[in-house]
Write a structure and sequence with these properties.
Number of strands: 11
Low-confidence stretches: none
Structural class: mainly beta
Distance between the termini: 37 Å
Shape: globular
Order of helices and strands: EEEEEEEEEEE
Mean pLDDT: 96
Radius of gyration: 13 Å
Number of helices: 0
Length: 120
């Protein structure tokens, strides 16, 4: 399974960004869970959001009410809509996939990461 993330960039606080991640590979199918992690400078990688094949999603408390995860199974793509961004949202965002679900301590496949920088 290969994951290609895009959409990162520099944005001012209170702004918005939308990340996308396209999955590919012969073993990937719509039953896979997809999600996002981020790693801030000097910190461990943390779970941000996950979504299973049915559309049920889970968000970290730090982003609830500001971020939305969604997926388009036909396009094998997962999105992370990030609104009301804060400087503490700065980091490298990684797309992840798992044969069941992506969670705080669960992901089998990783993308290359995309940088998000939020200026104050």
């Amino acid at each position: 399974v290969q994951l290609q993330a895009s959409g990162g960039g520099l944005v001012q606080a209170a702004g918005s960004l939308r990340l996308s991640c396209v999955a590919s590979g012969r073993s990937f199918n719509s039953a896979f869970g997809l999600g996002w992690f981020r790693q801030a400078p000097g910190k461990d990688r943390e779970f941000i959001a996950g979504i299973v094949w049915s559309g049920h999603s889970t968000l970290a408390d730090s982003v609830k009410g500001r971020f939305t995860i969604s997926r388009d199974s036909g396009k094998k793509t997962v999105y992370l809509q990030m609104d009301r961004l804060k400087p503490e949202d700065t980091g490298v965002y990684y797309c992840a996939a798992d044969r069941v679900r992506v969670g705080p301590n669960r992901a089998e496949y990783w993308g290359q990461g995309t940088q998000v920088t939020v200026s104050s």
